[in-house]
């Protein structure tokens, strides 16, 4: 009786092994698995390379949005500057230290070592 139980226990394992051998160890299954591994990791257009390139594309799209916003901001400033004479004068005085012929300009420089100590 015990021998029959042992045989019954062995038979289902051998059937599962046959199923595994039939489907998993099939030459087509092995070939497909090797092809997928090759395409994901080793090929020139692998998933990893494509993922990295997509990351770069997103980075450049973000930069493009940033530069578009900066362009719009600078364009608005330029239009304001070109249409208003007092804005031109203010900009020239503040950034290029320009002056009228009868004026004097005093530039105050703060000592950074004294500011850092406080």
Summarize the structure.
The protein is 79% helix and 0% strand. It has helices at residues 2-23, 27-42, 47-83, 85-96, 112-117. The longest helix is centred in the middle third of the chain and has 37 residues, at 47-83.
User: Structural class of the secondary elements?
Assistant: mainly alpha
Low-confidence stretches: none
Q: What is the helix tally?
A: 5
- Residue share in β-strands: under 5%
Q: Which value, in Å, is the CA radius of gyration? A: 38 Å
Helix content: over 70%
Integer average pLDDT? 82
Shape estimate: rod-shaped
Q: What is the chain-wise order of helices and strands? A: HHHHH
Notes on the structure:
This protein is an all-alpha fold and 118 residues long. α3 (47-83) crosses α4 (85-96). Helices cover 79% and strands 0% of the residues. The chain has helices at 2-23, 27-42, 47-83, 85-96, 112-117. The protein is rod-shaped and about 105 Å long.
Topology:
Elements: H1 2-23, H2 27-42, H3 47-83, H4 85-96, H5 112-117
Helix pairs in contact: 3-4
Features:
single chain, 118 residues, mainly alpha, 0% strand, rod-shaped
């Amino acid at each position: 009786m015990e021998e029959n139980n042992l045989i019954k226990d062995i038979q289902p394992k051998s059937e599962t092994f046959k199923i595994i051998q039939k489907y998993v160890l099939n030459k087509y299954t092995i070939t497909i698995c090797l092809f997928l591994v090759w395409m994901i990791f080793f090929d020139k257009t692998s998933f990893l390379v494509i993922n990295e390139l997509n990351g770069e594309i997103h980075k450049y799209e973000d930069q493009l949005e940033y530069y578009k916003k900066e362009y719009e901001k600078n364009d608005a400033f330029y239009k304001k500057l070109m249409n208003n004479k007092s804005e031109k004068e203010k900009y020239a005085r503040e950034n290029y230290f320009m002056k009228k012929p009868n004026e004097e300009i005093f530039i105050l420089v703060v000592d950074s070592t004294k500011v850092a100590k406080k």
